[in-house]
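Supplementary Note 3. Input sequence used for the single-chain structure prediction.
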Amino acid sequence: MARHRQPACRFGGAGRATDRVVPVAHLLGAEALHLEYPTQVVFDSVTVGVNEGARIGIVGRNGDGKSSLLGMLTGRIEPDSGRVTRRGGLRVAALDQADTLDPDSTVANTMVGDRPEHEWAGDPRVRDVVGGLLSDLDWHAPIAALSGGQRRRVQLAALLIGDWDVIALDEPTNHLDIEGITWLAGHLKGRWPRSGGGLLVVTHDRWFLDEVATTTWEVHSTASGGIVEPFDGGYAAYVLQRVERDRIAAAAEAKRQNLMRKELAWLRRGAPARTSKPKFRIDAANQLIADVPPLRNTVELAKLATARLGKDVIDLLDVSVSYPGTPDGRPVLRDVEWRIGPGERTGIVGANGAGKSTLLGLIAGTIVPDSGRVKRGKTVRLGMLDQQSGQLAEIADDLVRDVLGRLKTGYQVDGKELTPAQVLERLGFRREQLSARVGELSGGQRRRLQLMLTLFDEPNVLVLDEPTNDVDIDMLSATEDLLDSWPGTLIVVSHDRYLLERITDQQYAVLDGHLRHLPGGIDEYLRMTARRHAAEASPRPAEPEHARERLSGAELRNIEKEIAALDRALVKLSGRVNAKHVELAEHDQSDHVGLARLTRELRELEADVADKESRWLQLSELVESGG
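The predicted structure, written as discrete structure tokens, is reproduced below.
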């Protein structure tokens, strides 16, 4: 069953041990596990093992058994047959997707119980976890008053402060923002010595998988039940090895078909035929993708987008939005200026509650700014994939095939005409699911149907709000493939770093109510937030009483205008820095004087960027402390 083996794991088929002896200590394992539900054999005779130092990411389609496998290994699900073995005294902790917190408890009691403050406050792990996941929560808030996302973070944090030999996490990045996901990856990588502990994680976050996993288990169903196939490395290595596996399978099938044709010809001729054995050369995984064209023809897509949209799309002009009850009455968004162009593919990041959904509401026209204006092009047709799946509520009682029957018979996808059913299959729907009612579909299936219906409305501006919710990795890959050839303006809000870097060409961040362009991508955003947290944590000299007075309205407006001006200046500077890099690369490399001049000019531009970023942070902190 397993072709690629990693020293930290053991694999075998039904009752069969692997043929490889590993020189590391065994933590836990499972032998000949069988799990069956009334309508499905989930696993049939699966044997796996986890050894010291294992860092295992578990991937597969929704419904194929990832969570069930995790549940059996951690003892929360009893298999119908087979056995799970553990090293004596092994301490195992599991985070599942269910909310298990006591609503009558508080954040503090859930985290540290009755431990005195001087005891837990002196524990470096507790401080690290609280700072990484709960810094924005009231320590004494009742659990019942928290949102679903906040409760999830408390549940994860309460697990991480414990001392465990094996940790099993089921979708731990759900409800975490990019900063939280980055912190969690760093925490897990540094939690144990390299050859100690064990980690099992089910996640659809591919960046996170690449960061924490040294082995990937693929769970997938077969006619007789689910199997587990191991691959060395994280997500990127897994993809390359899976391509090789599929190529080998295709070559083997081609060989079988060829031999069958020759056998048939021999039988028809009635005489033996001399045949030569076919040879297949399987290239290395890197070579398999050497001839794959670029993901997107950006020039052609831009031409198509301009033809469909014209030059005017949506402009946010000096807009501000506030809500009653916000801290200090400050706007959620203030002085935002953003001119969205045809064919632009933009990712939006920011902490939970920073104002990303408000920004999307301005774009969609569902929110009216308190000041400034939103200018919309005459040809704009906007489609929005929201988190509520509201458009499916009206058709919840309809069969999926009836919904498809009301659509056009054919749509152009990648230059081919496909029926709605074919597009839905491309997104991972199975034919038997077409007979289900919309309201009976799983969260991931509803998300696929919602995306397809949104695209079939033929918008020229597409807004995706957290499109990775309830979606497995195969569905994400299919969605990305579909969007690669979509010729329009694309705006994506997501905490999934891999998705943002895969389908968008530029990123912006919502920080302190302002929209900041990120020429350096997500890494630049993380650097900015890290600097900010460091500045907040460092002790500040006592300020004179008059300096701590609240800013007047006029002073606040002047500061916010300067921040907006700095935003615009930084966007222009990033363009000049990029152009200087290109000029430096294309310059005659034997002209040392010219190269020195260009390098000096580049350093001056970069220094200007650093000065303006520093001023931007200083002004933002002033608004926070004195606004």
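The CA atoms of residues 98 and 512 lie 33 Å apart. The chain has a mean pLDDT of 80.
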